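User: My collaborator sent over this chain with a note saying "see what the structure looks like." That's all I know about it. Can you take a look?
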Amino acid sequence: MLETSADALIETLSTLAARQREHRTHTADRLTHVLDSALLPANLTDMALYYRAKAHRDLGRSTASRQGMQQVAAGTTRLAPAEASSTLPALAATSPPPWPPPRTSAGPDASTASSAESGEERGPNASPCRR
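Assistant: Without extra context I'll predict from the sequence alone. Here is the result:
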């Protein structure tokens, strides 16, 4: 049971030290327990939020991860500007596409089909040997 700020700090640091060896669910649960205690100062709270959001991301919980990163980015600690400029756009880019995908009436892209039929290769990884 966390009773003091020192207890919360010890739990946070030991969780972060062990996060590479234990399952991310355990890491997220331990950090949630620390955050729920409200015993950490703001800068350490943001650190705990950040690592809990990373654990959620690793577990495939994109909504929880995004919410955690948004909390960090909205804060006033040193982590906030870094998160706002780096992690949040990456999380938005990795959001799953809508399912089912939209139907198209044209079928495959015409330019891809014509280049495949003609034997042409395009792009930076095109083989120079195949002409």
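A starting point for your reply to your collaborator: The radius of gyration is 22 Å.
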